[in-house]
């Protein structure tokens, strides 16, 4: 039996996850629909005055993006854990670190990436100034990557548990807070006419660190969950 | 001693309520974190004693692994 | 050196030695708590700006300092249990979480009570307060994860991973909250900076910080003893111990 090299293996894994996701378009649509619906709650709760909404728009968009990412990250490993393919993955000779990265990348492409692409639409609906929209999209693009990686740690630790859904949010929301601070900071800076670049640079640094460290934690979490 | 009388200690120039309630809450938490593990240990030992007594009371010659 | 580690990994030895440590450490800690409180409450001059309400500092600051240090103790114990698979380390780690959460709670509540007479409000979203609140969430997350697992050995491993992730994140969270606050800081409130403390106030404060560390140690050992007995319930030494203490 010849073993696949790690990059090929991870590429196949990524393709498998994407194909599985694309076969169920509803599953991809769910986080986006959630995003849209929660956005629609804010005018109802805060009142429709465009000025008020525009002031809160950076915070609202970021918080909702965070929540929809949280909801979708619960399911990253769930189905593979239930049908046993996760166990096979742990037995594979390829390092789990890179396999975990492939899983998270697939999840990010199907949620965070699409969310970042669609965010200008919702930003316009909330009356966010057009000047801040590139900063919003860029910060979401970088920030949701960090969210997916950190969410993956929570998902890996709770996948073996019956009632993982609520628990995962308790575990990882505190770790989401720095991303929220700098993500909405970037949009606010752009609104104020300043450059969003420093914020984006910090988000980029967080992303680098998360890419380097989170897969190791995800791998450790998966080993524990499969043991259970 | 900074204060002259007991009532001055309790009053603390109008801040007494804040200071004393903060110390009281802390006291409650400290008692809890010291007492809770102690109670857990005592309760466990009591349960185990009961278990051992039941096993020996049956006077079973074969010691079964519980 | 290695034999010491082997002993540290041995439950009966740790149970016995922690008992003899607690026999003198616990009364000493309680005495020091009373002495430090009396010192801070009665024998120091009031602050010239805050009056007597500043006396809360003698419990607020020690609780906050030890709560934060407790997270690192928990993470180090978690790392030890993951790397060397030392059973006693994950018992220590599990014991840290509720104590840390309790101390964080004390720091938040006393801070809030202190805030009312000083700033006129129970709660402000100040950088330090917000960070402490997040620390409380981190502790409660570890407790919740531990309780969710049926198998306690695996629960300890999962908590070790989580607390290590937390250790990497705590400096980031602190720095970003700090930065967030400096951006939104209301001009009228400023707590940090320029705080020089008189030695007559500093000494009781340092005394109380040391005392709170001792308190943490006492509670940690007590929690570990209870946990050791429960995990070792089937072994001979625990059964003999239960027999020895039989009153009748």
Automatic annotation (TrEMBL), chain A:
The chain crosses the membrane at residues 31-46, 53-71, 100-128, 140-161, 167-187, 199-222. Its main location: membrane. The keyword Protease does not apply. GO terms for cellular component: plasma membrane. Keywords: Cell inner membrane, Cell membrane, Cytochrome c-type biogenesis, Membrane, Transmembrane, Transmembrane helix, Transport. GO terms for molecular function: heme transmembrane transporter activity. It is found in: Cell inner membrane. The keyword Membrane applies. Pfam families: CcmB (PF03379). One of its GO terms (biological process) is cytochrome c biosynthetic process. It is a multi-pass membrane protein. Coiled coil: none annotated. Belongs to the CcmB/CycW/HelB family. Required for the export of heme to the periplasm for the biogenesis of c-type cytochromes. This is Heme exporter protein B. It comes from Kineobactrum sediminis.
From TrEMBL, chain B:
Pfam families: CcmD. It comes from Kineobactrum sediminis. The chain crosses the membrane at residues 20-37. Signal peptide: none annotated. Belongs to the CcmD/CycX/HelD family. Keywords: Cell inner membrane, Cell membrane, Cytochrome c-type biogenesis, Membrane, Transmembrane, Transmembrane helix, Transport. GO terms for cellular component: plasma membrane. It is a single-pass membrane protein. InterPro entries: Haem_export_protD_CcmD. This is Heme exporter protein D. Its main location: membrane. It is found in: Cell inner membrane. It comes from the Bacteria. One of its GO terms (biological process) is heme transport. The keyword Cell cycle does not apply. Required for the export of heme to the periplasm for the biogenesis of c-type cytochromes.
Automatic annotation (TrEMBL), chain C:
GO terms for molecular function: heme binding; heme transmembrane transporter activity. Keywords: Cell inner membrane, Cell membrane, Cytochrome c-type biogenesis, Membrane, Transmembrane, Transmembrane helix, Transport. It is found in: Cell inner membrane; Membrane. Residues 18-183 form the Cytochrome c assembly protein domain. It comes from the Bacteria. One of its GO terms (biological process) is cytochrome complex assembly. The chain crosses the membrane at residues 21-45, 57-84, 96-115, 127-146, 153-174, 201-222. InterPro entries: Cyt_c_assembly, Cyt_c_biogenesis_CcmC, Cyt_c_biogenesis_CcsA/CcmC. It is a multi-pass membrane protein. Its main location: membrane. One of its GO terms (cellular component) is plasma membrane. The keyword Transmembrane helix applies. Belongs to the CcmC/CycZ/HelC family. PANTHER family: CYTOCHROME B_B6 PROTEIN-RELATED, HEME EXPORTER PROTEIN C. Required for the export of heme to the periplasm for the biogenesis of c-type cytochromes. NCBIfam families: ccmC. This is Heme exporter protein C.
């Amino acid at each position: 039996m010849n073993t696949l090299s790690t990059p090929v293996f991870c590429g196949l894994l990524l393709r498998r996850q994407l194909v599985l996701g694309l076969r169920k378009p509803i599953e991809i649509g769910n986080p986006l629909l959630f995003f849209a619906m929660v956005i629609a709650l804010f005018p109802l709760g805060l009142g429709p005055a465009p000025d008020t909404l525009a002031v809160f728009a950076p915070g609202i968009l970021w918080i909702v993006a965070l929540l929809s990412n949280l909801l979708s990250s619960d399911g990253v490993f769930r189905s593979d854990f239930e049908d046993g393919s996760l166990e096979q993955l742990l037995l594979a000779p390829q390092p789990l670190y890179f396999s975990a990265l492939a899983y998270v990348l697939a999840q990010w492409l199907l949620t965070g990436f699409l969310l970042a692409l669609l965010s200008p639409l919702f930003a316009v609906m909330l009356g966010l100034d057009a000047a801040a929209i590139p900063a919003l999209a860029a910060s979401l693009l970088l920030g949701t990557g960090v969210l997916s990686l950190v969410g993956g740690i929570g998902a890996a630790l709770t996948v073996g548990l019956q009632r993982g859904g609520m628990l995962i949010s308790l575990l990882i929301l505190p770790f989401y807070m720095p991303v929220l601070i700098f993500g909405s900071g970037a949009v606010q800076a752009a609104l104020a006419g300043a450059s969003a670049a420093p914020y984006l640079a910090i988000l980029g640094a967080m992303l680098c660190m998360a890419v380097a460290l989170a897969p190791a934690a995800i791998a450790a979490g998966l080993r524990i969950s499969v043991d259970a | 001693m900074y204060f002259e009388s007991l009532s001055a200690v309790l009053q603390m120039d109008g801040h007494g309520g804040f200071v004393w309630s903060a110390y009281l809450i802390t006291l409650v938490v400290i008692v809890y974190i010291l007492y809770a593990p102690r109670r857990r240990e005592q309760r466990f030992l009591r349960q185990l004693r009961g278990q051992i007594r039941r096993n020996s009371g049956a006077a079973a010659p074969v010691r079964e692994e519980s | 050196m290695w034999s010491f580690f082997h002993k540290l990994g041995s439950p009966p030895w740790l149970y016995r030695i922690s008992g003899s440590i607690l026999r003198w450490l616990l009364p000493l800690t309680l005495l020091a708590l009373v002495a430090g409180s009396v010192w801070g409450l009665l024998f120091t001059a009031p602050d010239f700006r805050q009056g007597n309400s500043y006396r809360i500092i003698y419990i607020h600051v020690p609780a906050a300092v030890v709560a934060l240090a407790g997270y690192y103790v928990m993470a180090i114990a978690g790392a030890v249990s993951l790397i060397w698979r030392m059973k006693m380390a994950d018992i220590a780690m599990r014991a840290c979480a509720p104590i840390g959460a309790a101390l964080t709670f004390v720091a938040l509540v006393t801070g809030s009570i202190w805030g009312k007479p000083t700033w006129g409000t129970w709660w402000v979203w100040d950088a330090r307060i917000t960070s402490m609140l997040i620390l409380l969430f981190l502790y409660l997350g570890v407790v919740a994860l531990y309780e969710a697992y049926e198998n306690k050995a695996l629960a300890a491993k999962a908590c070790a991973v989580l607390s290590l992730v937390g250790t990497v994140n705590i400096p980031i969270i602190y720095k970003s909250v700090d930065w967030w606050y400096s951006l939104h800081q209301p001009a009228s409130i400023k707590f940090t900076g320029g705080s020089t403390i008189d030695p007559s106030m500093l000494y009781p404060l340092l005394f109380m910080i040391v005392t709170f560390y001792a308190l943490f140690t006492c509670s940690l050992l007590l929690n570990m003893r209870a946990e050791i007995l429960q995990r070792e319930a089937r072994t001979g030494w625990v059964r003999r111990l239960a027999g020895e203490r039989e009153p009748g």
